[in-house]
From TrEMBL:
This is Acetyltransferase (GNAT) family protein. Gene3D superfamilies: 3.40.630.30. InterPro entries: Acyl_CoA_acyltransferase (IPR016181). It comes from the Bacteria.
């Protein structure tokens, strides 16, 4: 579904696909995954990852200390099948996932995301969640991205 979503975009650079290893990590306790189904067919999904002290932790870009990095969450990916757009599935899945995060992982303190500057839908999603742009940089082998952040629950 990542590929179908990417192919339907105006600019494929707007979506940075997750690797199989990242999906497996999220499914095996290093994150959260939620899907939306229509007639038992997956039409959208969203992934949160807990990067821990990895070098890819966006908390490093925000100047968090090494001791703070385990309390960072990444909003990694939202995919909505092209035929299911317009139903606000990205927003709905985000709200559900963030509620699950608050309930199951209350120790988490920061949520981060990267968004292509031209991806208005994803930027609006992040702004509606109260996230703010903290930097513009290159990620994912030189692709331009905003880094967004929100402090959680404290």
């Amino acid at each position: 579904m990542q590929e179908e979503t990417a192919e339907a975009l105006e600019d494929r650079d707007h979506l940075e696909a997750l690797s199989e290893a990242e999906f497996l990590a999220a499914l095996n306790g290093k994150g959260l995954v939620m899907g939306a189904f229509e007639a038992e067919v997956l039409v959208a999904f969203r992934v949160l990852l807990f990067p821990g002290k990895s070098r890819d932790n966006l908390g490093c870009d925000a100047g968090l200390s090494n001791a703070e990095l385990p309390y960072v969450v990444h909003q990694e990916l939202s995919c909505v099948h092209p035929q299911s757009r317009g139903q606000r599935l990205q927003k709905k899945l985000g709200a559900f996932l963030m509620a699950e995060l608050a309930k199951d992982y209350p120790e988490m303190r920061w949520v981060f995301a990267t968004v292509h500057p031209g991806n208005r839908a994803s930027l609006n999603d992040k702004f509606e969640q109260g996230m703010e742009i903290i930097a513009e940089t290159e990620k994912y082998e030189g692709k331009k991205r905003y880094i967004l952040m929100k402090k959680l629950y404290c």
